[in-house]
């Protein structure tokens, strides 16, 4: 039976709580990922930042709601709305990861069986699970696509 260590992506890219959302957005776009573990100075997982966290926060600072259903800014938008949207983007870009990350993180030990990983992801409705060693330090990550690859190789 495969373990988390066998199916994880390692090393896992991670970010810190002091990085800006702009930096994370650039990494998400560059790597075509949907989220990253957030680690402290000792490489211990303290959170997760995902595109969902960023979109949810964007709604609270009026970045997203000004676009129409097509996803584009309406040509009929009031100029004051556009100015408000610009302020929202500026605020979004300078926000620190620690302010909007998900702090309740489910991790799994590198020796856990693949079945345990799948059960955790299913029960908690999560898309990625950081893999940690016996000291709680990040050693990798398992995403939904890693699990699909694991199943395809059985």
Descriptive report:
With 154 residues, this protein is α/β, with parallel strands linked by helices. It has one domain (4-152): Roll (CBS-domain), CATH 3.10.580. The chain is 42% helix and 17% strand. It is built from 7 helices and 6 strands. The strands form 2 sheets. Strands 1-2-3 form a 3-stranded mixed β-sheet. It is elongated, with a radius of gyration of 18 Å.
Give a concise summary.
With 154 residues, the protein is of the alpha/beta class. It has seven helices and six strands; from the N terminus they run αβαββαααβαββα. The chain has a single domain, classed as CBS-domain (Roll).
Please name the CATH topology: CBS-domain
In CATH's first tier, which class applies?
A: Alpha Beta
Count up the domains: 1
Portion in beta strands: 15-25%
Oligomer: single chain
Strands across the major sheet, in which order? 1-2-3
Characterize the main sheet: 3 strands, mixed
Please tell me the overall pLDDT.
85
Given helix and strand content, the structural type is: alpha/beta
What is this structure's SSE topology?
Layout: H1 4-7, E1 15-16, H2 21-31, E2 35-39, E3 45-50, H3 51-60, H4 79-94, H5 97-100, E4 108-109, H6 114-124, E5 128-132, E6 138-143, H7 144-152
Parallel strand pairs: 1-2, 4-5
Antiparallel strand pairs: 2-3, 5-6
Q: Which features would summarize this protein structure in a list?
A:
single chain, 154 residues, alpha/beta, CBS-domain, 3-stranded mixed β-sheet, 7 helices, 6 strands, 17% strand
């Amino acid at each position: 039976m495969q373990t988390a260590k066998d199916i994880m992506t390692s090393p896992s890219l991670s970010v810190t709580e002091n990085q800006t959302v702009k930096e994370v957005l650039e990494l998400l776009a560059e790597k075509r990922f949907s989220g990253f573990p957030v680690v402290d100075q000792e490489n211990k997982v303290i959170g997760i930042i995902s595109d969902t966290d960023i979109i949810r926060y964007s709604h609270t600072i009026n970045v997203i709601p000004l676009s129409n259903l097509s996803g584009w800014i309406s040509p009929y938008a009031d100029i004051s709305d556009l100015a408000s949207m610009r302020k929202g983007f500026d605020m979004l870009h300078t926000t620190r990861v620690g302010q909007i990350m998900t702090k309740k993180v489910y991790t799994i030990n590198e020796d856990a069986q693949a079945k345990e990983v799948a059960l955790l992801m299913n029960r908690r409705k999560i898309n990625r699970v950081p893999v940690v060693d016996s000291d709680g330090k990040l050693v990798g990550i398992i995403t939904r696509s890693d699990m699909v690859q694991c199943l395809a190789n059985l």
